[in-house]
Amino acid sequence: FTSPSAVHNFAESIDQPITEALKSMTIATIGPVTADAAKQLGLTVAIIPAESTIDALVVAVQEAIGKFLR
Q: In Å, how far are 6, 14, 21, 33, 56 from 1, measured between CA atoms?
């Protein structure tokens, strides 16, 4: 997720609780503010880049995928 509003809008757009819809997903957020919004809705955030930019988020996701594939 790239913003708190993206988290909230996604949660409002689905027909089930967000925790149920994303229970088997690895959650990534662009930074701590967005992570806090996700956590307030009950999500577990696994990926938060050190820098709150799209580029850093992409790198963090790539690194997580690399660790998973090893």
A: 6, 15, 15, 11, 13
Written as one string, the DSSP assignment of 21-60 is HTTTSPEE-SSHHHHHHHHHTTPPEEE--SS-SHHHHHHH
pTM of the model: 0.88
For 58, the token pair is: 């992409």
Tell me, what's the pLDDT at 49? Answer: 97
Q: What's the rounded Cα separation, in Å, for the pair 55 and 47? A: 13
Cβ count within 10 A of residue 16: 9
